[in-house]
Write a structure and sequence with these properties.
The complex is a heterodimer of chains A (239) and B (229).
Chain A: H1 4-12, H2 25-30, H3 35-64, H4 90-112, H5 114-120, H6 131-143, H7 148-176, H8 188-203, H9 214-221, H10 225-238
Helix pairs in contact in A: 1-7, 3-4, 3-6, 3-7, 4-5, 4-6
Chain B: H1 2-9, H2 18-25, H3 41-46, H4 51-75, H5 84-106, H6 108-114, H7 116-119, H8 125-133, H9 140-170, E1 172-173, E2 176-177, H10 205-221
Antiparallel strand pairs in B: 1-2
Helix pairs in contact in B: 2-9, 4-5, 4-9, 5-6, 9-10
Chain lengths: 239, 229
């Protein structure tokens, strides 16, 4: 079993939201023109993730999961006679939580930091449709973290990872303005390629070992052909 | 690709006025949601390792978008503008639940591979973007056309990226080998001549670079699309 710290570090580097799963790319590409707005949006994402993922964790474990309602009546539990499984509702519940929290954050930022509100403009409401927020909730559900502490550290780590990604891209884009990029690649094209190269750099974190079980998982993350061939070679050698 | 679509759609109905036709053809190339508007990339990149996944993802997005745009357009005068985002999210979320349950029922192995990315259709920016920009202000029929155009514009880029990555990365199309057998010791076809799959293509960052190259090609062909630095 991974420790809470493992989950945190893994979420920042090995399983970075941007470089490994491409979550939240839309706002990532649109708001990364200057470091200042990048920092603002990055902080907003960290905050919203840290608030919504634990809330969704509670929702998942006490309402939605199969047999999760056993606290109401033991009959509804997994072994009870009237097991209730509401997991098909999870998408709609998660997005409702996310949307309402984002609305709240928007109102708070508008009240207490009007300058930041002006800078982020349309992108603050769009955090509701930022894939990384809902993605955080869905990965939390998929990986079935055992405690709320683990889920929170996963959310915090993912947020930090996203923050690092957007701030470094914004810094690169500020510098790239002075370089001679081929006309057709200017703007969007070069941003994609730079992000790809950053992703390759982040892949070097895949070798980091977390606990003992990590090695087996690591080969799995590089899916497809590489794994197949290496497995085949292993089989051959054994024979 | 865009040209064949045009031919298919054009002659059939008088309902397709010139303006309506452009709703479909524009997003296929010059106003493509992925390469020009930069929307909906989140899900577009993660599931483009194999054509099969990309295909099912495209079908799901087309379904959600067409029905979502239709429903939003029908309700456009009833939705209070203050809570419109939440109403739109609920509509998309319900449609995505339908898609997810159907995928699980009919193509369970694909559904497993797509994992959380089906759920992430909810937050696909193309869908919310079209609701906001088009369906909230237009009648149902143009909204459907707009949805079809944008969803197909999304789909063909998705399938193209998946095709490049699957052919170069694993030497397969839709799971079928095209360059021969690459089992060590019994190579055939191109592999016997020393050809090796580029495993790099399977890694996530290469999706970004492939899309970057598509954008490069597209903008080189149409100078009007070139951005100011």
């Amino acid at each position: 079993m991974e420790s809470t710290l493992d989950i945190f570090v893994k979420a920042i580097f090995t399983e970075n939201m941007i470089f490994a799963y491409f979550l939240g790319m839309c706002s990532y590409l649109a708001v990364s023109k200057t470091v200042k707005t990048g920092v603002g949006l990055g902080l907003a994402v960290v905050f919203v993730l840290v608030v919504t993922v634990p809330m969704n964790y509670l929702l998942e474990n006490y309402v939605l999961k199969e047999g999760a309602l056993s606290w109401l009546n033991p009959e509804y539990g997994v072994s009870g006679s009237k097991t209730i499984d509401l997991s098909f509702l999870s998408f709609i519940m998660f997005i409702a939580v996310v949307a309402s929290i984002v609305q709240l954050v928007e109102m708070l930022v508008e009240k207490f930091a009007p300058a930041l509100y002006g800078a982020l403009g349309i992108f603050l409401p769009l955090i509701a449709v930022n894939c990384s927020i809902l993605g955080g909730a869905l990965f939390m559900q998929d990986r079935q973290y055992s405690t709320i502490l683990d889920a929170t550290s996963f959310a915090f780590g993912s947020g930090i990872g996203w923050f690092i990604a957007i701030v470094s891209l914004a810094a690169i884009r500020e510098k790239i303005r002075y370089s001679n990029v081929p006309p057709a690649l200017r703007g969007l094209g070069i941003t994609f390629i730079v992000t790809g190269l950053m992703g390759i750099a982040f892949m070097s974190f895949m070798g980091v070992e977390y606990g003992k079980k990590k090695e087996a998982e690591n080969t799995n993350t590089i899916s497809g052909g590489a794994v197949e061939t290496s497995q085949i070679i292993n089989v051959k050698q054994e024979n | 690709m865009s040209k064949t679509e045009e031919k298919l759609k054009a002659p059939s109905e008088p309902l397709f006025s010139k303006k309506n036709k452009r709703l479909i053809t524009d997003p296929l190339a010059d106003n493509n949601p992925i390469t020009i508007q930069v929307l909906g990339i989140c899900s577009a990149l993660a599931i483009t390792v194999q054509v099969e996944q990309a295909f099912w993802m495209s079908i799901s997005v087309i379904f959600v978008m067409v029905f979502g745009n239709l429903i939003v357009s029908l309700l456009r005068n009833l939705i209070p503008s203050r809570v419109r985002i939440i109403v739109q999210l609920v509509i998309v979320a319900s449609l995505v639940i339908i898609v997810n349950e159907s995928l699980q029922a009919f193509v369970p192995d694909v559904s497993e591979k797509l994992s959380v990315f089906v759920g992430l259709i909810i937050t696909n920016c193309i869908i919310m973007g079209r609701f906001e920009a088009f369906a909230m202000a237009n009648k149902p029929f143009p909204s459907i056309l707009d949805a079809i155009g944008n969803a197909i514009g999304y789909a063909w880029i998705l399938v193209l990226v998946a095709l490049v990555r699957e052919v170069l990365g694993s030497g397969k199309i839709w799971g079928a080998s095209i360059f021969g057998n690459n089992l060590p010791g019994e190579e055939s076809g191109l592999y016997a001549l020393g050809y090796v799959n580029n495993n790099m293509m399977i890694l996530p960052p290469m999706a970004l670079i492939v899309v970057g190259i598509i954008i490069w090609v597209q903008r080189s062909m149409n100078k009007e699309l070139v951005e100011e630095n």
